[in-house]
Amino acid sequence: xxxFFYGKLAFGNLxxxxxxYLPYILAAVGIGAMYYIMVALTGxxxxxxxxxxxxxxxxxxxxxVVIMIFAVIFLFYTNSxxxxxxxxxxxxxHILGMEKKxxxxxxxxxxxMVGSLSIAGGLAGGILLxxxxxLALLRITGLDVPFGFTVSGAGIANVAVCFAIVFAMTLVxxxxxxxxxxxxxxxxxxxHGEKEPRTRWILALLGVAALGIGYWIAIVTEDxxxxxxxxxxxxxxVVFGTYFLFTAGSIAVLKIMRKNTKYFYxxxxxxxxxxxxxxxxxxAVGLANICILSTMVLVMVSGTVALYAGVEDIxxxxxxxxxxxxxxxxxxxxxxxxxxxxxLQSLEENGLAVExxxxxxxLAVTVWKSKEVLRIEKPGAMATxxxxxxILEMITLDEYNRQENQQKExxxxxxxxxxxxxxxxxxxxxxxxxxxxxxxxxxxxxxEGLDGNVIYDGYFVVxxxxxxxxxxxxxxxxxxxxxxxxxxxxxxxxxSGTDEQLKNCAVRLEELVDGYNQGRAEEEHLAVRFAVKEExxxxxxxxxxxxxxxxxxxxxxxLMATVLIIYYKQISEGYEDKExxxxxQKVGMSPxxxxxxxxxxxxxxxxxxxxxxxxxxxxxxxxxNRLLLLFNMKNPGLFAACTVxxxxxxxxxxxxxxxxxxxxxxxxxxxxxxx
Length: 675
Description:
With 675 residues, this protein is an alpha+beta fold. It has helices spanning 5-16, 18-43, 45-49, 53-95, 100-141, 153-180, 183-187, 201-220, 224-259, 261-264, 267-309, 311-318, 333-349, 397-404, 466-480, 499-518, 533-586, 591-629, 636-674; strands at residues 323-328, 353-370, 373-375, 388-396, 414-421, 428-431, 434-441, 457-463, 487-496, 527-532.
């Protein structure tokens, strides 16, 4: 036998099955190109040296891991579609006299050709597109674009090795599938799964329960940090619930539809419902995959778009003033005044004029709040105190009157409260048994909201004098020990000047603060920190822009996977339905009735995952909104607008894919059956 026989045979098989293999190869090329780009970005020395380059490298490294894991799962999943269509062909080869080892050699050559094309195409696409992607990334993050063109050796090696391993794994899997089946099983493998599935009510109820619990967690969880921990629990519950509902719940619904005689005994409904019932076991997994992938695209892209669109809100929430200076652990009034003088002198030396400033000394304490009862308490190893975590930031009445230019008075057991984030329903607070009556809820409080990093409920509390403040300070120090808070001095200022003056002042302040801290480095809780809003803006643009880039990048990967799964599903359905529709036409169905039946079936199957994905997204919205609070994104209206826009764009793309796959399905089932 000619040594090139198997290679020629493999090439001929790939050409003959081009409709199946071309999308598979294109998808592998696309994923390979994206993986190369991610690896190259992670190792790009030019990006690493830029401001915020470390954050970008971390974000891109996360993208590499996600894409590689996804590539393994996705290529194996799509390979199963190919094998299902090819098994009959392999069975025919076997009956005609080709041994399984010869079929294995042919499959080896096919895998080598597909793998080589995919790897070479992926590398070529990745190298050619890399500069364009870098330009897009730097444009999004607001960084300067470097000159030059580089090729990543690490990217080439990673793509070649990783994808070669993946294709080798698919070959081993395919050989095992052929080896364990006999010729008859191979010939009739396409008809497996035709037995009507039973209605599995337990799985259907488990699916409803899993979805219900996942939705409940997403809706009722209030604490942003708890939301982060419970998010993955909710995601797993929704994923399992989706698979259970599609595999068991969908069959139950279809059988209920079949019992509705007025609906069922119409030509287009009779054919579509009957066909879907008999193959729902294998269809359901594909539909669930489409639903999960669609949800991932919607969640990821809408979240990152909202984060990037709200970057100015985030910066303004975190840094309401141009400059922020904090001394942790105030030692004396003299030192505080010296620090303030150093700060103001630095502004003056750099030509900056103070337009507005706020300064105060406060004690911020973490408490567990349950209505009027506030407890300063350490959480135990096995249990946490009752109530929600809240932050009390306390100042004396003298500080308040001086800053607000007021002459208000308080008794020893009275307090003023300004709610930064929380409830205004209580008439009194009891802090570890120390009772205070809320004399007034303050409005238009200058100091309220200056520390934008607070993500828990926050309350600004004014107490009578330093004695009351020290009493509470001693209480929390005794309980929290080395973790206790200190009395801190804060100064916030808006200034007038140019961006260049602001940057020069920031450099000078950094030098002064470093020198100031050197003499305090050994003392616990004692340090000075400062932040310049303009400098932080650049860092946040890079951080949020990097996440937007990753969200769009991975969203495109998942969208591509969704489209390919839909395509293979419809092509596979078309081949399986072709014989049935030929029989239907022979017994009197017109081509128009065939098309109507096809349209009815595809419409039901195709848009169910999209509808379910939108339901998932709607239920996830409250939890996603609270997750964005961790980034100080406090604009649910903007997030809602971004989400609706992303859903609209995705639905349009989904509809276009529907039109293309519906035509492909009808071309297989309708046109060929008439020929």
